[in-house]
Design brief:
Layout: H1 3-25, H2 30-51
Length: 63
Amino acid sequence: MRNKEKLETAIEMKRIEMIRVGMTKGLSNRATVKCSQELDELLNIKRRLYANGDNKHKISIRI
């Protein structure tokens, strides 16, 4: 799987997790906020990669 696909998969998985946690624990719960911050981090990585026009960088994504 290419880096771009890994990043997209990680973003989608984190988004699903954040929605699930938010619905069960509430939107202001620490776990929901943490998921949101982790999603923001992934989205920022994506933005930086595409802003540089360089999606060949080696990226490390923890899922």
